[in-house]
């Protein structure tokens, strides 16, 4: 695909949206931990856990995958991010009971859910626009019917 390809995945747009969503999710995670009665240490742990797991958010930006499979890559990266974040939260909560494991786990789950929702909306929007452009190009490239004599 050339950069002028109208059917190219706008990875930069996706990356920008997900960077903003990740920053918001970090705030939701830390706020969720504090609202659930977690300590400041648990809030800092949530921040680090979410930051580490959020690296997977940018997989669809970095991986050069065609538009036919890009949505699948987004799905796997989003599911992987949530599983990594919740797995690390579980391990940290078990190792540090003073962190109020329930608060830590629920704060991170709320942040992961927010990221998943935003990621899904942005991905559907991007893929829908590409599909509309593809249909428009297909319709304009159709040959004119020849007159029958």
Q: Which percent range describes the beta-strand content?
A: under 5%
Amount of helix: over 70%
How many strands appear in the DSSP assignment?
Answer: 0
Task: Characterize the biggest β-sheet.
Answer: none
Number of helices: 5
Which residue ranges are poorly predicted, with pLDDT under 50 across at least 5 consecutive positions?
Answer: none
Q: Which whole number gives the mean pLDDT?
A: 87
The helix/strand class is mainly alpha
Terminal CA distance: 42 Å
**Helix and strand pattern:** HHHHH
- Radius of gyration, in Å, reads 21 Å
Rough outline: elongated
Give a verbal description of the structure.
The protein has 149 residues and is mainly alpha-helical. Helix content is 73%, strand content 0%. It is built from five helices and no strands. It has helices spanning 11-35, 40-53, 59-62, 70-95, 101-140. α1 packs antiparallel against α2 (40-53), α1 runs antiparallel to α5 (101-140) and α2 (40-53) runs antiparallel to α4 (70-95). The chain is elongated and about 85 Å long. It starts with 10 loop residues before the first helix and ends in a 9-residue tail after the last helix. The model has no long low-confidence stretch (mean pLDDT 87).
